Amino acid sequence: MTSLHLIVGAGPIGTALAVRLADDGHRVRVVTRSGGGPAHPAIERMALDASDATGLAAAAAGAATLYNCANPGAYPQWERVWPPLAASILTAAERSGAVLVTMSNLYGYGPVDGTMTRSTPLRPSDHKGVLRVRMWQDALAAHEAARVRATEVRASDYIGPALTPAGSLLARYASATLGGKAATVFADPDQPHTWTAVDDIAATLAVLGRDERAWGSAWIVPSNPPATVRDVLQGLAARVDAGEPRLRQLPRWALSAGGVVIPVLREVAGVLYQFERPFIADGTDTTETFGITPSPWKPLLEETAHAWHARAAGT
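Request: output the structure for the sequence above.
Response:
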């Protein structure tokens, strides 16, 4: 049955979700400040400041689902931009009756000894994680008060051909190594790390927005077995004959010193624990409940390698 879905944000996740829903025969309305978004006959692009709750509620009228795929920009902007934006999206979902599905990350778990699952306690160690936890708790409280139906999708660092160096550390490193240059990495490149495919995130969002078993809980996107930064960069390079990646690890003290004058480096330091120890997420509950499985790793790496290599080469 055709239904209307409203998506806030047109970054890699919002775009992939919009195209997936449209290809499945649904009507999609994408809201961004600029009115941008993917071109598709079933996708309407709307210019709107999503922090305007009244305007967003009007845009969500008649929508079955409201997807929060917003990206407020660089870390230093989060404390200023996220609270009013998240509050507006929650209000719009309440007023419109749309199911609220929030795209989130793993920051709320903080440093964890072992594997993260959806039952792992939320113990953020950085203000960005505290903020994400507060957003979820606000939505969950509204859900438990029967004011809204809400769920949250949590993913690890992204991988996929659509990503750019501006939005992904891995893509930033690969932009150098696939171009034959050395990459400066912020932490230990030999720690196991979970990487989540953009298309798998979109698939999870689409399913959870329409399945009431998801509502009232948060879910981790199913991902492939963990791989180190070095392993991934080697795998990408091998597929385009780019040679062995050369990596230089930036010392922690240098990052901390740079953070004194460069705010974004200070913010990166706050989540660097994710690359200084094993960072492993387990989406088994999501797979067992909804049947969602991760994209096969080798084809994902192949497609990503060619897209990123072409970008690094400027073609």
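The chain has a mean pLDDT of 94.
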